[in-house]
Write a structure and sequence with these properties.
Strand content: 15-25%
Structural class: alpha/beta
Helix content: 40-55%
Largest sheet: 5 strands, mixed
Distance between the termini: 20 Å
């Protein structure tokens, strides 16, 4: 008998919701999704709206759902069945999106992390940036706002850079000061953005190396999963550091955590059912 599960990933910048059907043979089918930027709105309200949206899109009712799983900052969602650590959900979601990968690089609003995984999405090793690091989506968004650049323009501008100027500091506050100084020196916007991307990429590649991954593919997930400028910079740094790992992207990479939550929810539901059957026997 098929079951339906929902995964809700509350991040620092957005709330992502997914709805899956998992069949008896273990196959998983993605039926609905929703992503809402927080922008000073209440994440719990957005989680409720995400739940209602994916149910509507899939043509289901709340009592059709076997398990509602949260991840990220969603441990206080009142209507959830259970909560999963985001490291494991991004790993599982990454393997669902791109089977065969060896690593997931989650670059979110506040931090970045490299996760070494096996073919099932089990976490083998991981390394995370510090809370203060400038290698985050929020930092990049703040800089773009200061430069008067739209978020969706960052990637193309960065790729057009001819003479990138690297940001030296890992502290977001000091790095922003570096950028202000660059503007006063007349450094071109594409060169500033490419420099920031290269600084972020350098830290990401170092994280990957520490996990022990030496080959295979690494999928970029999280809010910056579709930033082409950052992806290009990571590939550049991989080549410079002689790390033979292929960087790949996916158009739904921002949903990796929510996908993993839904799939782990299905797994936990199955195990709980087995325990109940044993107890009743």
């Amino acid at each position: 008998m098929s079951i339906h599960t929902i995964g809700i990933d509350i991040g620092s910048g957005a709330v992502k919701s997914t709805l899956f059907r998992v069949d008896d043979d273990g196959s998983s089918h993605w039926l609905a999704k929703r992503c809402e930027r927080i922008r000073r709105r209440d994440p719990m309200t957005l989680a409720q709206e995400g739940l209602e949206s994916v149910l509507h899109d899939a043509g289901l009712a709340a009592n059709d759902i076997a398990y509602i799983a949260t991840t990220g900052e969603g441990e206080n969602v009142k209507f959830s069945t259970g909560h999963f650590y985001s490291m494991t959900t991004h790993a599982r979601g990454g393997v669902f999106l791109t089977p065969g990968i060896s690593a997931v690089v989650d670059v979110g609003a506040l931090n970045g992390r490299a996760i070494y995984v096996d073919e099932r999405g089990k976490v083998l090793a991981y390394k995370m940036t510090s809370q203060c690091a400038s290698g985050s989506g929020q930092f990049l968004e703040n800089i773009a706002r200061y430069l008067g650049v739209a978020i969706n323009e960052i990637g193309e501008l960065s790729k057009s850079s001819q003479d990138p100027e690297k940001v030296s500091s890992i502290c977001a506050v000091l790095a922003e000061t570096d950028v202000i100084n660059m503007v006063s020196r007349g450094i071109a916007t594409p060169d500033i953005l490419k420099g920031i991307h290269l600084s972020m990429a350098s830290r990401i590649v170092k994280l990957l190396k520490v996990t022990g991954i030496k080959t295979g593919q690494a999928l970029i997930t999280g809010g910056l999963g579709m930033d082409e400028g950052l992806t290009a910079a990571i590939r550049e740094e991989m080549a410079n550091e002689k790390v033979p790992v292929e960087v790949v992207t996916h158009p739904d990479a921002i949903y990796a955590g929510a996908i993993g939550a839904a799939l782990w929810g299905a797994y936990r539901h199955e195990k709980l059912q087995e325990l109940q059957q044993r107890a009743a026997a």
